[in-house]
Write the structure tokens for this entry.
Amino acid sequence: MHIRKYDFNYSRRMFMEKTLRGSASAGVLCGIWPLLASGKDLMKAYPDELVSIEVNTKGKVKPGDVITANNVEHVKHLLTEIDFKQIKEDGRKIIINDAPAATPDYLFPLDYYEASVRNAGRAGFDAGGNLVDSKGGGKWIGGAPFMDPKDAVQAYANMTYSWGRHDFAQYAIRDWDINPDGSQAYAYEFLWIELNTTNRIREPRVFKNFENLLRLNTVLFTSPQEQAGSSFLSEWYYDQSKFPELYGYMPLFRRVRQFPTNQRFEPLVPGITMFLSDAWGAGDPMLTWGNYRIVDRRPMLVGGSGRNFFEGIQPDGKPPVHGGPKGQSYWDMYMELCPEALVIDSEPTGYPRAPVGRRRVYVDARNSMLINQITYDRRGDLWKTVIATAGPKNNGKKALKNSHGHVEWGVQTFMIHDIQSNRLSRFYLAPQITGGHKTAFEADETAVYDGFLTKQALTRLGAA
């Protein structure tokens, strides 16, 4: 029997071959790097069954369809096992969006993309495994270090060294925490600030001469009143074998204290399912984890559409929800077909007392962004999932633009479900939260540093 080279299963065979080789390089009909470098639609690198949901499901699902327990079997191969379980057993649904042209402005912030193209081919690792500029010497100079990653470590470097693809980002986040019976346990508002001190795409190339650091990250809770002022500051070293310094301010104790490294695997406040270790699928320095390996690659449904940017959709500012025992567990999420996802496993080799035994991340091979993360406990049992959506902040009604006139790009929503306790937290980026804090990607960075990113700032914020 003669098998045609480009039959319906050609991509599946190609993915299997790449996985066996441990390759992270993206593309089936051709590599995506030449298309990325020229600003073209990356879908040209894939056959029809990886571009069209209708072709992929042989006509059973099309854009505009709503996936529920009644038809989820048609897309089971495009979901994680927890996604499938949520839809099949807990009333979750997803809305299929027509995948738009996968051009650079859809997959990246444009200035980050431009820096990635400009610096292509310069990235390498030193003897200690840290990212360097192999041509100019010294630390990495900004953008994705490996636009065409060759293995799991290179793909993870893309995720770790610049979480949100911005030098500075301030996310105003609203969170609802759901009890196992489907009732609301808590509702929080918090500010998440991240500022890269090195690996920057704009001037200054090193912020405040912090050459030994990679980033500063503060989480500040502003609501409800009993948690307002609680804050956490992480100081990340550029050396990815070093643990971040973690400080926190609790209004009850009225002082800043330093937390142990394993605090990264615990909830920050009561009821929330988010750990610092969960951030972006790369919440810990990459050399404190190990045994990175690509275990699979396949198409997946991904929440990349700007339609998950909720601003302006509802008068009260609250996104629509559904599912669970009381109809308030899950966002109404638009998802589309991602032609190629890397499935990467790793283990917390630097944390002997970590409750996590293994982490599995599903990564969009086109831009190395997190699609989904699943963690397993030390027994190897399923524990938590992190479902993230990211893309241009333009829902067709309102766009968030930067000072250059470009539509901003970044995370839109995420959900974290602890399936062992059946507790779920759902988050979205709001335009503004209690205290007047706004989502922003540009600011006076020195003022932000002084106001939010020092131990003294934590004390002032807690006393305010």
Q: What stands out?
A: The two ends are 75 Å apart (CA to CA). The longest helix spans residues 10-21. The chain has a mean pLDDT of 91.
